[in-house]
Amino acid sequence: ELEKVYDELDDTRTLCQVLMEPTRIYVKSVISVLHHYRVKRPVQAMSHITGGGLAGNVMRTLGSHLNARINRKSWPLPPVFSFLARQGPIDDEQMFRVFNMGIGYVMIVRPHFVESIRHQLERSGERVTVLGRVTKGTGRLQLV
Length: 144
Fold this sequence. Notes:
This protein is α+β, with helices and mostly antiparallel strands. The chain has seven helices and five strands; from the N terminus they run αααβαβααβαββ. The longest helix is centred in the N-terminal third of the chain and has 10 residues, at 27-36. The protein is globular, with a radius of gyration of 17 Å. The termini are far apart.
C-alpha cells in the first residue's frame, strides 16, 4: 500500500527503487576542485552527508566555535523525504538529524571562492546549491 501512495508522488520510480538508490560518490568532482587550487586553500571543510544527517555531519566538520546557518528553502526537497516524514510521522528536527534531505555532499568554502567552485563543480556535472553561511558561534546548526 505504501508503494501505491508513493507512486502518486513519483510516477517514474517506486518507493523501493528510490530507497535502494546507491550512494553517490563525489570524489572525482571534489579532487578536481582541490587540484585547481595549488596555493590558495578556499575549501575549509567537507562532509559526505550520510548517517547523522545534514545537521550532524556539517557540525562535526566545523567544531564548537562556529555556527552553520542553512536556508531550508535553498534546494528542492526530494519527495521521498516529505513522504517519509508524513508516514512516520517524523518531525522536521528528526528528519534533518537522520537523513541528508537531498544534500549528498557539503563543501564549506571561503565566500570569495563560492562562484568559482560552483562553476567548477557544475562543469563536472554536479548540481550545486549554496545552502547558507558559517559564522562565529557555539557549534549550532540553525535551519531557517
